[in-house]
């Protein structure tokens, strides 16, 4: 069977599902958010000074990064789950979150004395961050991998990795409400590593469970 024929067959299979793929993805995203919220609230919960911190730019900038990452990854993984769908524009959107973090890091380097850079980078919650972002994100990742099986991705490893980025962005959004380290230097390092772990796990899941 030629590649074009295979893509058409997969696309026809995806369209024949009882629930349209577009609607199923939105339901899956809602379920994933609920699961992440429950795990977050039952484990660490928001920081005690959440309301006061919400008035500071560094605290709010964490959510800008994580939410933009989640939105862009959601758009791309939906496109990847549909055979023959255009992914170029959604793939370009994935650049937004890293650019925002890079800009915030540059501003931080100008605003903070160089003697404090190391302290801001290491922070005080490194291990908590590395533990709880994957913990909060593992449930959503399982849902997104299941959704990829519901669709018909022609690049399952890539789709799984993007599903991991989506789960990581969602988990990091909740974790940011707890994290006391608001410096972009901390976010750029430890948040990225924790989210990257979920992306790697998603790629493995795509290879093992989503491939055709």
Automatic annotation (TrEMBL):
Transmembrane annotation, as ranges: 24-44, 59-80, 92-112, 124-145, 157-177, 189-210
Segments forming a coiled coil: none
Alphabetic keyword roster: Membrane, Transmembrane, Transmembrane helix
Pfam family, one: NrsF
Domain of life per record: Bacteria
Name listed for the protein in its UniProt record: NrsF family protein
Organism: Mesorhizobium shangrilense
């Amino acid at each position: 069977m030629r590649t074009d024929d295979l893509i058409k067959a997969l696309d026809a299979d995806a369209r024949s599902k009882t629930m349209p793929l577009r609607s199923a993805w939105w339901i899956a995203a809602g379920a994933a958010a609920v699961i992440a919220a429950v795990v977050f609230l039952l484990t660490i919960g928001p920081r005690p000074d959440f309301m006061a911190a919400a008035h500071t730019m560094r605290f709010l900038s964490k959510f800008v990064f994580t939410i933009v990452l989640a939105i862009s990854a959601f758009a791309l993984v939906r496109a990847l789950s549909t055979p023959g769908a255009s992914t170029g524009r959604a793939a370009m959107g994935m650049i937004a979150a890293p650019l925002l973090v890079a800009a915030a890091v540059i501003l931080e380097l100008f605003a903070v004395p160089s003697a404090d850079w190391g302290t801001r980078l290491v922070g005080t919650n490194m291990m908590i961050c590395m533990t709880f972002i994957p913990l909060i994100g593992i449930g959503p990742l399982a849902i997104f991998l299941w959704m990829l099986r519901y669709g018909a991705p022609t690049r399952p490893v890539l789709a799984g990795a993007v599903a991991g980025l989506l789960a990581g962005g969602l988990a990091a959004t909740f974790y940011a409400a707890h994290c006391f380290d608001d410096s972009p230097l901390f976010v750029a390092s430890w948040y990225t590593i924790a989210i990257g772990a979920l992306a790697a796990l998603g790629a493995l899941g795509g290879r093992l469970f989503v491939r055709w």
